[in-house]
Design goal:
Blueprint: E1 24-33, E2 44-49, E3 55-59, E4 62-67, E5 70-74, E6 96-102, E7 105-110, E8 113-118, E9 121-125, E10 141-144, E11 150-154, E12 157-162, E13 165-169, E14 180-185, E15 191-195, E16 198-202, E17 207-210, E18 221-226, E19 232-236, E20 239-249, H1 250-264, E21 266-267, E22 270-271, E23 274-276, E24 285-287, H2 293-311, H3 314-332, E25 344-346, H4 353-356, H5 359-368, E26 379-381, E27 387-390, H6 395-411, H7 416-435, E28 439-441, E29 447-452, H8 455-458, H9 467-485, H10 488-501, H11 503-506, H12 523-536, H13 541-558, H14 564-581, H15 598-607, H16 613-622, E30 631-633, E31 640-642, E32 653-655, E33 679-681, E34 687-688, H17 692-704
Antiparallel strand pairs: 1-20, 2-3, 3-4, 4-5, 6-7, 7-8, 8-9, 10-11, 11-12, 12-13, 14-15, 15-16, 16-17, 18-19, 19-20, 21-22, 23-24, 23-34, 25-27, 26-27, 28-29, 30-33, 31-32
Helix pairs in contact: 1-17, 2-3, 2-6, 2-17, 3-6, 3-7, 6-7, 6-9, 6-12, 7-9, 9-10, 9-12, 12-13, 12-14, 13-14, 13-15, 14-15, 14-16, 14-17
Organism: Agaribacillus aureus
Protein name: Two component regulator propeller
InterPro entries: WD40/YVTN_repeat-like_dom_sf
Length: about 700
């Protein structure tokens, strides 16, 4: 049996200061059963619970029940659920599809409408509320919940009758799908709806959509049964899914993800996703590499640094130190002091990397990407002959490195030896950039494809689209270097870039969001991680205001992606700026005096900026425990709005409320992808992502006081 974990957390309104690391929430754990677990290779048409709440599955091959982890043949008596016979049904009704006793009368759903039997006669019901008035058709589900409310599912949508008042739901009210196949009552007024494409849990205020292999063996739902404790059994065309509720708090979830990273995602101190030799089976994993091992390792190290700052736990410091040494190793192993490699692997790595990334590979890549760099070898043998290191390092790596170095220096480095370790690597990388004209110079003597921060490049036709981001990043790197090393040369260098090349002005538009084909979603990580250090260590109030305005511009474009990490970074930047505002400097008349009321107006305008606290915490709760990369296609949903921007992909859109779909209902979990991509696969079930994407925003929120 393969146990596939997925998370759903009850969402309740959050008010500032109420969330604590020990607050408990409900989480769903989905276990998928297929023929590998003893079921026959055919549809499961019904699911029943016996008197002891043991599940019994009905198939064309007979009945099966679950014994331990395996389904075996069941020969006991089973009482099938059948519709009661309706005497003299309404003449115009057509086929009877559903029925329910509600308020001492019988409701019947039919092909041609909803009818209620009153004094042996039939009356057709036309549900209506402030938005709709429906003549129903194909009323396939009727259900009374444990709050004595009647639910009606039809082609038109879902209706809820409560105390004589109807509330009607379509996609505009959040209903994901409306081709209903079955229904079963849940707990606390909720119901479970089966559809031709997934299961829906509804409670009258919102919908929780469970589809794809993350949750189910197949999306066509034939039947549902719910135990008293809420455990839900779902029968599909290709097996059974069990969804259990488990109480968990934020800290317990962090412990889970730390164990996950340490057990399946650690390679000589480096952190990244793994590969699964068998689809969906985490026990078949093998360690993998990524193009951005340095950044992902740095982000994990930063999570442990924030953890250590709050908890002072020995393990947190050990993991942060290990990550620092791994990142420093990336710098120390290469051809020139200060050049960081992307990846380090043993010389006997099982994949023949330089045969894979050969000259023909480069030529083929250049056919679709003319700027792809032709460099050989792409994996360079280390001087001691024991490892390969990958070149053509990008700005992704640098953003992670500098973010982590600063956090480690401030929160973890306690001895002079630890501080000097950080100073050395920061000086090495920064000096390499400055010495080579503000770029990463590869072993071929040329700039790397994505590591050019030079004035000549940014002011050329080739670099205009990277100008704002790379100018801001370079200023951030120099601010971090000045802070960590205390060497005034970095502040002087930064001043040259501002005075002679307008880097601070370019930095005011630190992220490009148009045209759509030039928007790179993972650049949001680069932007915000670099902005964190830029703002935190800036002393000039005029520059700080410019950078704060840049942060606002960037975040506004991504603020509806429900990304906990981006939201927490933005909140920290906001609060850092607000501390300066509180000094009164922006109302003193000394900041941008030639601009009149600009400074006090802007300071006041940005002070109260919202970072969607409730949604940030909800995303932390909803991030699945199961980080396998599943393919999830949301393009069929009724509750989405397609992006109308000219040039946008046809499968890009957002939830009816204007925000991205919940994290457990979309196809990526790494959170550095485009949350508005409706059809996505992060590995097609053959990879598992690392849990950093919970750990970093959680511990950062804990450190900054957004979680108590």
């Amino acid at each position: 049996m393969k146990q596939l974990l997925a998370i759903f957390l009850l969402i309740t309104p959050c008010v500032w200061g109420q969330i604590k690391s020990t607050d408990v929430f409900d989480q769903e754990i989905a276990t998928v059963f297929t023929p590998e677990d003893g079921l026959p290779a055919t549809a499961v048409t019904n699911i029943f619970l016996d008197e002891n709440e043991n599940p019994i599955a009905k198939t064309s091959h007979g009945y099966y029940w679950l014994k331990g982890k395996t389904w075996t043949s069941y020969t006991g008596e089973v009482k099938d659920r059948t519709l009661q016979s309706i005497k003299n049904p309404p003449k115009s009704a057509g086929e009877v599809l559903s029925q329910a006793n509600f308020g001492s009368v019988l409701y019947v759903g039919t092909q041609n409408g909803l009818f209620v039997q009153e004094k042996k006669s039939w009356k057709e019901i036309f549900p209506s509320d402030a938005n709709y008035s429906w003549k129903l058709s194909n009323v396939t589900v009727l259900q009374v919940d444990d709050k004595n409310r009647l639910w009606v599912g039809s082609e038109q949508g879902l209706g809820l009758l409560d105390n004589g008042q109807w509330k009607l739901f379509t996609g505009a009210e959040g209903l994901p799908y409306a081709k209903f196949t079955c229904v079963h009552p849940g707990r606390q007024g909720a119901i479970w709806l089966g559809t031709e494409k997934g299961a829906i849990r509804a409670d009258g205020s919102r919908f929780y959509y469970r589809f794809s292999r993350r949750w189910l063996p197949d999306d066509f739902i034939n039947d549902i049964a719910v135990q008293k404790d809420g455990t839900t059994w779902i029968a599909t065309n290709k097996g059974v899914s069990r969804i259990e509720f488990k109480e968990m708090n934020y800290e317990e979830k962090a412990s889970h993800f730390t164990r996950q990273v340490e057990s399946r995602h650690t390679r000589e101190g480096f952190i990244c996703q793994n590969k699964l030799k068998k689809q969906y089976d985490i026990n078949s994993y093998r360690l993998d590499i990524s193009d951005n091992d340095g950044m992902y390792t740095a982000m994990y190290g930063a999570s442990q640094a924030f953890r250590y700052a709050v908890t002072k736990e020995k393990e947190a410091k050990e993991l942060a130190v290990r990550s620092l040494k791994a990142c420093k190793w990336l710098v120390d192993i290469t051809h020139e002091p200060g050049f960081p490699a992307r990846v380090i692997i043993p010389i006997d790595w099982e994949d023949p990397v330089n045969e894979i990334y050969d000259s023909l590979y480069n030529v083929n890549r250049q056919k679709g990407d003319p700027f792809w760099k032709q460099i050989l070898p792409r994996f360079v043998k280390s001087k001691d002959g024991r490892h390969y290191w990958k070149c053509d390092t990008s700005s992704d790596e640098l953003s992670g490195h500098y973010f982590f170095y600063a956090v480690f220096y401030d929160l973890v480095a306690e001895t002079e030896e630890e501080k000097q370790l950080v100073r050395t690597v920061v000086a090495d990388v920064t000096d390499h950039l400055v010495r080579n004209g503000f770029l990463l110079r590869d072993h071929d003597g040329k700039p790397t494809r994505w590591g050019n921060f030079s004035p000549q490049f940014l002011n050329s036709i080739w670099g205009w689209d990277q100008r704002g981001l790379n100018a801001m990043m370079m200023l951030s790197f120099l601010n971090v270097a000045q802070h960590v090393t205390g060497d005034a040369k970095y502040a002087e260098t930064s001043k040259i870039l501002r005075d002679q090349y307008n880097y601070h002005i370019h930095a005011m538009q630190s992220k490009a969001f148009f045209p759509p084909e030039d928007v790179v979603p993972w650049d949001n990580n680069l932007c915000l991680m670099s902005m964190y250090g830029l703002v935190k260590y800036e002393k000039d109030p005029e520059l700080l205001m410019m950078y704060r305005e840049s942060a606002e511009f960037s975040w506004k474009h991504i603020s509806k992606q429900n990304n906990a990490f981006w939201n927490i970074i933005y909140a920290a930047i906001r609060d850092q700026f607000n501390e300066v505002v509180e000094t009164g400097i922006y109302s003193s008349g000394k900041v941008f005096p030639e601009a009149g009321p600009y400074a006090p107006f802007t300071a006041n305008e940005f002070k109260g900026s919202d970072y969607h606290y409730d949604r940030t915490m909800a995303t932390l709760r909803q991030l699945p425990l199961d980080l396998i990369g599943y393919e999830m296609d949301n393009t069929h949903r009724l509750d989405i709005i397609l992006d109308p921007t000219p040039g946008s992909p046809s499968d890009k859109g957002w939830h009816y409320d204007g925000f991205a779909l919940p994290i457990d209902e979309r196809g990526h979990v790494r959170q550095d992808r485009d949350a508005f991509a409706l059809h996505y696969s992060e590995g097609g079930g053959y990879s598992e992502q690392e849990g950093t994407f919970y750990l970093l925003p959680y511990y950062m929120a804990l450190y900054h006081g957004y979680i108590k």
